[in-house]
Write a structure and sequence with these properties.
Elements lengths: L4 E12 L2 E7 L2 E3 L3 E5 L6 H8 L7 E6 L2 E2 L5 H6 L2 E3 L12 H13 L9 H5 L2 H10 L15 H13 L5 E5 L7 H14 L4 E5 L3 H7 L2 E6 L2 E6 L1 H5 L2 H8 L5
Helix pairs in contact: 3-5, 3-6, 6-7
Length: 251
Amino acid sequence: MASDHIIETQGLSIDFNGFYAVKDVSLKIERGSIHALIGPNGAGKTTCFNLITKFLRPTAGRILYKGRDITQAKPADVARMGMVRSFQISATFPHLTVLENVRIALQRKLGTSFQFWRSQHSLHSLDDQAMRLLEEVGLAEQAGLQAVELSYGRKRALEIATTLALDPEMMLLDEPTSGMGHEDIGRVAALIKRVAAKRTVLMVEHNLSVVSDLSDRITVLARGEILTEGNYAEVSANPQVIDAYMGTGHD
């Protein structure tokens, strides 16, 4: 019987000249869930995220994706397996249109990203699919705008559209609402909930209101180690979590 866990880490650790940024982290991410990785500054969230997505190689431990050991895999390899990440800083082509940005991502999925000699007609064959993705993220009306003209929150929506173009089974979102105003946070949170209906999402997120609204399960890191896990009500009431975030003492 297939495991209900799409990602599992076992004793995941990395040290930098004797300093453990992540130490003995064992995670289980359930298929079809939204799982948040949170913690105070310096907790090791981004490092852990970079280990899982293969942008760093662990000192110790294993990473399993759909039961397959990917500890030594490269980022491009795991992307082809269906695990795709977005970044904390929006990664779009600013002077291409919104539609062209998504079309490039679709070309990448087809393995034609760098075939610049392809005819314009063959590229336009992807337009319908690109428009469907833009409709899914609420950007269809902005299809003809250059990406640079979008608000910050809409740029993040565009980035999610380009991630969806790769047809991921698993999406990894790094601080998806970072730097946004209240209105954009609401839009992007609603978008994440919508696209997660058919996928698994692991996100590093600092906005606890977003975490509360979206997450099925939460892992709290502190000083590179797992402090606790559970739903939002459980972790937010945990005295150790309050200590970690607020620096207040508890007996």
